[in-house]
Design brief:
This protein has 288 residues and is of the alpha+beta class. The chain folds into two domains: 2-165, Jelly Rolls, CATH 2.60.120; 172-282, Homeodomain-like (Arc Repressor Mutant, subunit A, Orthogonal Bundle). It is 55% helix and 16% strand. The longest helix is centred in the middle third of the chain and has 23 residues, at 143-165. The chain is globular and about 65 Å long.
Amino acid sequence: MILSSPSILLSDEMEGIREYCKTRATGTMTVLFCVAGSIDVEINNKIYHVCPKDMYVRLPAFETVFGKYEASPDFRFCQITLNESIFDQLMLEHLRIEPRWWDKQQYIKINPIIHLSDAGVELFHSYFRILALKMQEPESDYRLNIIKGVASAASMEVLSYLDHEIHFSETVLDRKSIGQSDYLFHEFMRLLQVHPYQREVQWFAAKMNITPKYLSEVSKARSGQSASDWISQITVAEIKRYLRYSTIPIYEIAEKMQFPNTSFFCQYTKKHTGLTPNQIRKRKNNTD
């Protein structure tokens, strides 16, 4: 079975892996779970042996080269691949609630194979089955939102599972252990989470005792996006969250998000989304 949409690829056939290998450069998140048999895969020039209950996780935040692979005759698996745009939406949601989001990405980068418990296996199978059922349904107003919601829940399960499997310590944040650029980008992400309504690169750079130019260079090198891009994404995500999931008056949202006035808030929203706040609120069932 291979099911695909503009946002998600779902597969339990080898062709799905071949499709993943062809499209990996576009920046996808892939979760591949081994059901039976085994597969030896080359990831960043290192060979990994994936057997039953093992889950391979690849995030688009890191350059990952998926090389040669060799599967046993009885190899069976489930694969979920999300494109970069839907992953970015999930990332922004996780960044708001997950204090160790970047640390966990670092962990997955170093340890792309996660061994699941029996409960973890059942959970992953359940998400895979739900996604398969929804992706085979006829188009509807809610179908895409439900699919993205299930994908978001599944990705949060992975993050939650890591809480039980690994113990983060301050060494994770040590400059020497993760490198200067990783450390600085981690600090930038942490500050964005704590201060989501700050919109000036200079403010974050001053908190980190570096220049705005250097902060943007680090951000671009680590994530492919400048510091100002990240700030805009976080701000726009917060704006859409308030407009779509609350009935708070627009002037109060502007105040909460520390805009100088409602007019400036509306101008900012229009500039970065192409829509006015009222238009976003009216289109709240959309997922753009």
